[in-house]
Write a structure and sequence with these properties.
With 472 residues, this protein is mostly beta strands. It has two domains: 309 residues, Glycosyl hydrolase domain, family 43 (Tachylectin-2, Chain A, 5 Propeller); 141 residues, Galactose-binding domain-like (Jelly Rolls), CATH 2.60.120. The protein is built from one helix and 31 strands. It is globular and about 75 Å long. GO terms for molecular function: hydrolase activity, hydrolyzing O-glycosyl compounds. This is Alpha-N-arabinofuranosidase. Keywords: Carbohydrate metabolism, Glycosidase, Hydrolase, Polysaccharide degradation, Xylan degradation. It holds the Pfam family Glyco_hydro_43.
Length: 472
Amino acid sequence: MKKQGFNPYLPSWEYIPDAEPYVFNDRVYIYGSHDRFNGYAYCLNDYVCWSAPVDDLSDWRYEGVIYKKTDVENNEDGDSCLYAPDVTVGPDGRYYLYYVDSKRSIVSVAVCDTPAGRYKFHGYVRYPDGTILGEREGDEPQFDPAVLTEGDRTYLYTGFCPIGDRSRSGAMATVLGPDMLTIIEEPVIVAPSEPYSKGSGFEGHEFFEAPSIRKRGDTYYFIYSSIVYHELCYATSKHPTKGFKFRGVIVSNNDIHISSYKPPQKPMYYGGNNHGSIVEINGKWYVFYHRHTNGTNFSRQGCMEEIQFLEDGTIPQVEMTSCGSNNGPLRGLGEYPAYIACNLFCNDEEPYTDFTGAWMDKQFPKITQDGKDGDEEIGYIANMKDSATAGFKYFDCKGINRVKIKVRGYCRGHFEVKTSWSGEVLGKIEVGFSNVWKEYSADISIPDGINALYFTYKGEGSASLASFTLEK
């Protein structure tokens, strides 16, 4: 039986946010920054690459390290971190990696002959006189480079614009020549920052960070993270460096704005910054984005959802799901790991995760793992106190009459099982104190058809949830 695809699409012990997905030679390659489990800052690890065949998005392969922090010029001690990168194929057929490190607000470039080989430093994006972009008087700081190459021209998009910062005008587009470094058209603003957005159509969704660029037909899609942090928005134009109009939100990593199963402003996950892009794979389009785990901003994981284009080119916002890479609902039978939860919340609503995780550890559930960074430990949900709810979407169920869960922790109570977050309780599974993972079960009938599943803890103490099993 073919393996199923989950969210996150990579193993639960891997932390690659800011994904830029590309199809090269019938494989999907993921280029992103690299967080650390239980990290204390963003992007602490080296760049690595994963890939999957276009016809099986459950079969991801680790390609290895493609660029180390110590490959950055004057960073022999690894003190500077590698922020979100992007990759493009140059006119010479080689692969060019664009990045900004945490010490300098300039764009560096590395190059490789293959999509996932070891990249070598190539140079800095610069003006014709040799001055590095970002270091000339009047230049705005460079951040989060995105690139698109057409013929001998490469379009570079950059920017980081906090709310209220009048020194940052918005997302910039710069045109590079065939050497992939030299500027042939100087930066222009393509999406405004918050102080300069009046009358632009971007109000309320102004550019913050995370630019990405794609072309579909004759239309350029500029994807970015807005000032509200949790959403990936997009703007479109028929020209790569002007005329972009705000079109909407593609995905939010706490499902705000979604009204198909809840009030639109109700958060259903602990969100945070967001970064990703869209890509066509085997005739279908997907959005790649990331979620936050371990109760902090610093252990982010990649997720993906199928998207649709309407006749006018707009993209309706999609829900977060557990089955984004599966091309449909998961089989409504068997055991599933709890880390694929796409909804996670409790009675005390909170749309954002915390930078340090200090308050989340006391109050809110979180997806985490045992061991240290790099240990291939399966993730689970910890700190499920009274009212904590984990939601999973979607499953194609038929004849399910028994549900098992695997739990540990200092807890005494029960888990309610439902098919909607506010729906009827279909049954309860009693749980108790255990220092090791222990299975509990109950006879619970799940309606036939495509369902979401929600597990809500009610009781004393704090439970951890490793998995659930659907049985006939």
